[in-house]
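Journal club prep — side note

Before the paper discussion, L.F. wants everyone to see what a predicted structure for a comparable chain looks like in token form. Sequence:
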Amino acid sequence: MMKNNLIAAAEIDRLDTWAKYTADMCHSCISSCCTLPVEARIGDLIRIGVVDDFERGDPPKNIAKRLQKEGIVERFNQKSGVFTLTRMSNNDCLYLDRKTRLCTIYDKRPDTCRNHPKVGPRPGYCAYKPKA
């Protein structure tokens, strides 16, 4: 008799469904973490290459306006200085390749992504969803 092995898939909005993170999860996941809002600071935007180092001294509000027009930034929180990157209509990060489900700017990715899942909505856990 064959035993059914059900692999639980997390619901992104229900933190209690998230799995305790292990390094091998990323290779078999559909990159569900890349559907969460990505927060970036000015240093991240410079590393990504959408802000020039010379702009560092410009008012962040002006930078945000330009990046919103270009479709790179969705929101800017002036109080915290945090930019939120634009997500596609399916909630994928702007920089996530739809076919490969890999980050197109991996070496330049924001600190939020570099530190996930050590930091985030549920530190130490991830919204693991296995590839079909």
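L.F.'s comment for the group: The radius of gyration is 17 Å. Keep this in mind when we get to the figures.
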